[in-house]
Amino acid sequence: MPVHSSRARRFTAVALAAAALAGGAVVTSANESSAALPATYAVKGVDTSHHNHDATGQDIDWNRVAQRNSFAFLKATQGDHYQDPWFARDFKAVSRTSLLRAPYHFFDPGSTKDGAAQADHFIRTARSAGYSGHAAGELPPVLDVESVRRNGKEVCPTPLRADQLDAFLRRVKAAFQVTPLVYTRASFVHNCMGGMRQVFKDYPLWLARYGSGAREPQPVPGAGAWTFWQYTATEPVPGIPGKDGTVGTADRNVYRGSLAQLRALANAGGARLPQPGTSWPTVKAGQRGVDAATVQLLLTAHGYTTIPDGVFGPRTVAKVNALQKAKGLTPDGIVGPRTWAQLILTVKSGSRGAAVKAVQRQLSARGYTLAADGLFGRRTTAQVTAFQKANRLRADGIVGPRTWAALIRH
Q1: Do 229 and 38 contact (CB within 8 A), yes or no?
Q2: Which terminus in the chain has less CB density within 10 A, N or C?
Q3: Are strands 71-78 and 100-106 parallel, antiparallel or unpaired?
Q4: Would you call 169 helix, strand, or coil by DSSP?
């Protein structure tokens, strides 16, 4: 089958990104100590599955996720029969955002000859959710090859054979007319595949390595440099639901290239995708933490004195109701976008009081150490400016609506 020019451009985008950042060579252990930290890569994304819903049973707020991420990989299938119960809903929701996206399949062999059956299962599931491999914003599909869980332990999938993987990759490539990505890690290829790395040599790699500081993923010799790096499985990601209203955690990844290169890979080089807007978390009765304390401090700043204990209990609900009535809002005791808009107050150098304490507590929760003394002095100005720079906001040291929104949704 002849290669279409669009597919050629997409594969070239991966190759150029890897070559430009790795000097055209595989990253080896000799230069790992000088490799870049994950934080230095500009293009970041997440990958999710039902596990990101299990703690709460709630939907992911993909609009919030899109405000701090550029791409998302979603688990679609595993083995030759399992479908992730959240995949179809998540893929539909992600497709309405600016996130570049693709489904992935967890390879779980039940025999030495079910590679094609797993591919067919994945293809059917991805297509039924609306994935074509060519729509604007769609990244190539992914094969996830790693240890499997048996009797509560992570083990090598004993029926795994290189020809199975080859059959899967060829079948998926033919179905979507796109070169798939492969997620794995060097240790798995060495320990579970006997070094049979040749099967991956023609596919862009998404490699995992956690807690390594500035040490990038160990290369798979003979299979090329990494294109995506999964550097943690436990990073708080605004928009991922956590228990008791907290921010949940997810796998976090970086892309080894520019956003323009990633957009080219996702058929979106010149396409206009939906852009993320301002999103505020919903805070209500029963929730605990810094957002609840922020509500309480801002209520106090408006004259509705509330103890800032971080517990959204009946007294806080009553004060929220009172403010909502005074502002002409429906008094439901729930702090959503319209109530946040009435609660926040612009504060800056020289400001004092409860609203400043709310800013200081939010900054401290984000790692910008501050004493919550209610005085907007030089230290607070410096930390606000640092937060603004880190979040691509105007670094003026003033906490207005955009900075408040970034602080609270972060």
Answers
A1: yes
A2: N
A3: parallel
A4: helix
Q: For a pLDDT cut of 90, what percent of the chain falls above it?
A: 62
Looking at 206-220, 244-258, 323-337, 389-403, which range is the least confident one? Answer: 206-220
* Cα-based distances in Å from 9 to 17, 224, 262: 12, 18, 11
Whether residue 79 contacts residue 108, with contact meaning beta carbons closer than 8 Å, is answered with: yes
401-409 vs 378-390: helix axis angle to the nearest 10?
A: 70
Helices 401-409, 354-365: crossing angle, 10 deg rounding: 40
How far is 29 from 35, CA to CA, in rounded Å? 10
Question: Two tokens at 282?
Answer: 């919903």
- How far is Cα 308 from Cα 310, in angstroms, rounded to an integer? 6
Residue 184 exposure: Cα atoms within 13 Å on the Cβ side: 32
CA 152 from chain centre, in angstroms, equals 27
Say which residues have a Cβ less than 8 Å from residue 203's Cβ, sequence separation at least 6. Answer: 143, 169, 179, 180, 181, 182, 223
Backbone angles phi, psi at 249, to 5 degrees: -105, 160
Q: What are phi and psi of 95, to 5 degrees?
A: -65, -15
Task: Output b/e per residue, 161-190; b: 16+ Cβ within 10 A.
Answer: beebbebbbebbbebbebbbbbbbbbebbe
Please write the tens of the pLDDT for every residue from 178-221: 999 999 988 899 889 886 778 898 899 999 998 776 678 888 87
Element housing 176 (H / E): helix 162-176
CB 243: neighbour CB atoms within 10 A? 9
Helix (H) or strand (E) holding 205: strand 205-208
344, two tokens: 């926040």
Give the pLDDT confidence of 103-153 residue by residue, as tens digits: 999 999 999 899 999 999 999 999 999 999 999 999 999 999 999 988 888
